[in-house]
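Entry 12.
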Amino acid sequence: MTQNTTYDVVIVGSGAGGGMAAYALTKAGANVLMLEAGGPWYASKDSPMLVPNYASPRRGAATRLRPFGEFDACDGGWEIEGEPYTTAPGSRFLWWRARMLGGRTNHWGRISLRFGPDDFRRKSLDGIGDDWPISYDDLAPYFDEVDRLVGIYGSREGIPNEPDGIFHPPPAPRCYELLVKKSCDNLGITCIPARRSVITQPLNGRPACHYCGQCNRGCTTRSNFSSPDVFIAPALATGKLRLLTNAMVREVTTAPNGLATGVSYVNKLTGEELQARGRVVVLAASALESARILLNSKSSLFPQGLANGSGTLGKYITDTTGSDVAGYIPSMENHVAHNEDGAGGMHVYMPWWLDNSKLDFPRGYHIEVWGGIRAPGAGFMGGIHRYPGGGGYGKQLKDDYRKYFGATIGFSGRGEMIPNDDSYCEIDPNVVDRFGIPVLRFHWKWSDYEINQVKHMQETFRALVADMGGQVFSPMPTKEQDYNIATGGQIIHELGGTRMGHDPKTSVLNANCQAHDCRNLFVADGGPFVSQADKNPTWTIMALAWRTSDYIRDQIRARAL
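Predicted 3D structure (tokens):
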């Protein structure tokens, strides 16, 4: 069944890119329809932010759809009943899907880093991969606007490839973070205040963070960023946005002239097949979901999928590399009772500080810090028995808990993967989901570039623990173990699949995130990214989506769309 209304723009997905597109386009006067595969959810109304874990039958433990804790602001995960995906023989990949309004913006770490000038021209610098068809200067004004609208804390440091922003004051470092900073200084590692989309001053009617530390649950005061409260609610207030939740998009529909006419979707609550019509279609369903929709959008004009004239649809997908190390720090034993006020998550981090030309891998990583009394397991990494002499019964056990509580510091590396020909997704010819939609099959391979990078992470983290006088809980992995490199998809920073470029023979989209093969089709999530960078991608997704939305606005006004 086809709905009667033809919208100016149909947007698929409501996360960072889709929410931003809805905000920008409705503010510009466009009539917009947004489809979201999950249900409605607003942190301001639905977050259990201050509910204690003991108030739950599971004591806050993880569930299948909330793998980061029962009260975490997520609905989805790597495994969703009735929505499978497959991996090719010899490949390992984990695909995270968020099934809720706002997608991953509800439960992410809110680490908000701009891609830097060098990140857009890596091939020109080291001859590996490909340059973007745009530069940092093209996105800089949009980064500034995102800073002003969403809000971010941080500090101006003047580091060339770590662009400064329009920052709110950052929270003060915690006790263990001061120890980290001291050891970084000793080892020549740059350590600066974290940059996160949490406001520490009132902004646009939202109050400053009150330091409850429960950012992962979503913020009822809207002090941290999520798409539903910061983008979608204002877009709805314009009267220009219609929102459809529980709408699983099957494909983009096209006319005989090859232009997009809208999307076909399934009402998940009724099973009804429906169509929505639009003069422009914007896919922002997440990088790999958008690729899946396009690969399934087959017709006589597009037998290999819509916008796949280059044959690169689904290709060159990447995820952030990741590895972790935690250690026991004796100087933190028997600490004086104190709280660790601040926004949930780290208050300091380490951007890339070395010259790759002197290393055996070509791209860098940043370091995230965790520990103290907020460390996993209420301050005990892996159990009390892992601490020197820890354990026992009765009084000794209680004394050991008091002694070692909070005496843990951990480090997580997040680095750049270089796209390769062996990492891509395609349609599985034999498997469909519960809606009858063909699913993705993943091929994945880490190259020696990433494996050597993660080895360097492990060595660096262990050197930091040693400088603090501590001991690491686990031995240095061997190469056969890939130095504890995370499984592809595990860090949930997947990018690519609909990459942008000047040449229609080697890319899906042009420099405006517009399909080479279909001028009224755009992608506004992580799919257009040409490279990964050593930075979390959300801030760049939002800046790029805003730039794309402005281009759509101008093209509509010029009657070119």
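Annotation: The mean pLDDT is 95. DSSP finds ten helices and 19 strands in the chain.
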